[in-house]
Design brief:
six-stranded mixed sheet, alpha/beta, binds magnesium ion, 9 helices, binds adenosine-5'-diphosphate, single chain, Rossmann fold
C-alpha cells in the first residue's frame, strides 16, 4: 500500500450507520426472477439529506434495487424497507420517492415544460400551476428559452436536465437517480455533476445515485456503496471524507486517487467474479 493509501486507510473505516436521522433503510431486501437471483439480501441505510452513491458491475442488480425502492417492483417476501422508520402502509413506496429511471423517458410529443410537469401532473397537481412552477425553475435547470422546445431539439445534457427537473418537481424528500449522466460525454457529465451538487446543496434532498463510474461515485457521494456481482449485495460502504463543495481539482488529488484505487479494487474483484460466473 502506498503512503497516501495508508494514511487514508487509517482515516477511513467502513462506514458506521449514518449519523443523521435515518431516512431510508433496507434490511435483507432480495429479489429473484424465476431461477435468476438478481438481488441477495441488500442492507443499506441512508440518512436524511445524505448523498449516497451506488456502484457495481453491469447486471449486478442496481436497477432491480432502484425499481424496488421506486415501488415499481415487488421485493421477495422477508426483507424490510423503511421510510422515516416505518414501512409503507400499502407495502410499496410508489409515490413516496421521486425517481429518474435509467432511460430518460421524455415524451417526444410534449414540450420541455410539459415533460417536466408530467410526474406532478399524474399526482393530481393542476397543470397550470405545475407549469408556472416549472417555468420559474427553468433558468436553474439551464433550460431558459427552451421551455417550448421538444426533446428531439435538445442536446443530451439538456434532456437529462429536463428529466431531473421532472424528478425535482415530483416533490419528495428522497430522490433515486439511475445512471442519470451515463450517456453523456465526459465534459458535459463533469458540468452536470457540479450542477447537481449545487442543486442538492440548496434543496438538501436525500439522494441515492446509481452509477458505474467510480470517479463520479467518489466525486458526488458522502458515501460510496459497492454492489457485488449478481446476486447483488452491498459489499463495501465507504465514507468519503472529501471537503465540500467538491472542486474539479479534487479529481487529481492524492486522497481522491487513493480512494479510487481502493474502490476500483473492490469493484474489479466483483467484476471478475461475475465474469467467471456469467461471462462478460
Ligand atoms: N424483469 C426481469 N426479468 C428477468 N430478469 C431480470 C429482470 N430485471 C432484471 N433481471 C436480471 O437481473 C439481473 C440484474 O439486472 P439489473 O438490475 O438491470 O442490473 P444493473 O442495473 O446493475 O445493470 C440481470 O441478470 C438481469 O438480467
Ligand atoms: Mg441498470
Amino acid at each position: 500500500m502506498t503512503g497516501a493509501a495508508e494514511r487514508l486507510d487509517a482515516q477511513l473505516t467502513v462506514a458506521a450507520p449514518p449519523v443523521g436521522r435515518v431516512k431510508l433503510s433496507l434490511n435483507g431486501v432480495a429479489r429473484s426472477f424465476g431461477a435468476v437471483r438478481a438481488l441477495d439480501r441488500v442492507d443499506l441505510s441512508i440518512a436524511e439529506g445524505e448523498f449516497v452513491t451506488l456502484i457495481g458491475p453491469s447486471g449486478c442488480g442496481k436497477s432491480t434495487l432502484f425499481n424496488i425502492l421506486a415501488g415499481l417492483l415487488e421485493p421477495d417476501p422477508g426483507g424490510t424497507l423503511l421510510l422515516d422508520g416505518a414501512p409503507a402502509p400499502s407495502g410499496s413506496l410508489l409515490g413516496r420517492i421521486a425517481f429518474m429511471p435509467q432511460r430518460d423517458l421524455l415524451l417526444p410529443w410534449r414540450t420541455v415544460l410539459d415533460n417536466a410537469i408530467l410526474a406532478a401532473e399524474i399526482q393530481g397537481q393542476k397543470k397550470r400551476e405545475a407549469r408556472e412552477l416549472a417555468r420559474s425553475m427553468a433558468a436553474e435547470f439551464g433550460l431558459k428559452g427552451f421551455e417550448n422546445h421538444y426533446p428531439q431539439q435538445l442536446s443530451g445534457g439538456m434532456r437529462q436536465r429536463v428529466a431531473l427537473m421532472r424528478t425535482f418537481l415530483f416533490d419528495r424528500e428522497v430522490m433515486l437517480l439511475d445512471e442519470p449522466f451515463g450517456a453523456l460525454d465526459a465534459l458535459t457529465r463533469a458540468l452536470m455533476q457540479r450542477w447537481l451538487l449545487d442543486l442538492w446543496s440548496r434543496y438538501r434532498r436525500t439522494i441515492l445515485f446509481i452509477t458505474h463510474d467510480i470517479d463520479e461515485a467518489i466525486f458526488l457521494g458522502d458515501r460510496v456503496t459497492v454492489m457485488s456481482a449478481r446476486p447483488g449485495r452491498i459489499t463495501l460502504d465507504r465514507t468519503i471524507p472529501l471537503p465540500r463543495p467538491r472542486q474539479p481539482s479534487l479529481l487529481t488529488a492524492p486522497e481522491f486517487m487513493a480512494l479510487k484505487r481502493e474502490l476500483l479494487e473492490a469493484v474489479e474483484e466483483e467484476s471478475l467474479k461475475a465474469f467467471a460466473a456469467n461471462g462478460p
